[in-house]
Amino acid sequence: MLRILIGLAAAAALVVLVYRQPAYAANVAADKAAIQASLNAGCEGFIHGDVAAAVAPYSKNIFLFDLAPKLHSNYDDVIQVNKQLAGAMEGKPTCAYRDVAIEVDHNHAYAHYLLAFTATLKGGKTLDVVERVTDVFERTNGKWLVVHEHASVPMDIMTEKLYLHAQE
Question: How far is residue 90's CA from residue 124's CA, in Å, rounded to a whole number?
Fold first, then answer.
């Protein structure tokens, strides 16, 4: 009798897993779309000089390896760098994501992509940069937030030359 009960319990668990899989797959697609939308909204915030919108994808607990001068940054640093950049720009910058890949697993996700942006600074200097970015996301109160980010640009370590708008 015990074997029958164990067998029935195992079969019931298997049925639950099988029927939950399509729902999870649908959630993954929705989660990927939500992450992409969050990144796009941050880009739009950057374009419009809206620092709060530009940093909205980030967790207040973020740990960031960025192009900015510090070895690693936190949320307050992200806000300050965005404020400095917004104040230094003249006209409207551009911001676009390329080659975005997002993987989701329940409450965590990661993405890697190229982030291209251009801006004209006051005084006429232009920025034309393609960053390589990897983000780690955590679902917090139903929202996907970046908890770790690593941004870089390719560099030839022998010549120390940066390739700010490198192409594959």
Answer: 8
Looking at the predicted structure, is the pLDDT value of residue 24 above 60?
Answer: no
Give the DSSP letter of residue 49: T
Write down the pTM of the prediction: 0.80
For 64, how many CA atoms within 13 A lie in the half-sphere containing its CB? 24
CA angle 82, 165, 152 (to 5 degrees): 55
Looking at residue 23, its amino acid is: A
CA Rg, the chain, in Å?
21
Strand order in the sheet with 126-140: 58-65, 143-152, 126-140, 108-121, 89-105
Indicate the range of 2-6, 51-55, 96-100, 135-139 predicted with least confidence. 2-6
d(CA 95, CA 80): 19
Average pLDDT over residues 143-163: 89
Residues 6+ apart with CB under 8 A from 118: 93, 94, 126, 127, 128, 129
User: Closest Cα to residue 40, out of 102, 119, 84?
Assistant: 102
- The label of the residue with tokens 């080659």 reads 99
Q: Is the pLDDT of residue 166 over 70?
A: no
Report the residue count for the chain. Answer: 168
Neighbours of 45 (CB within 10 A): 20
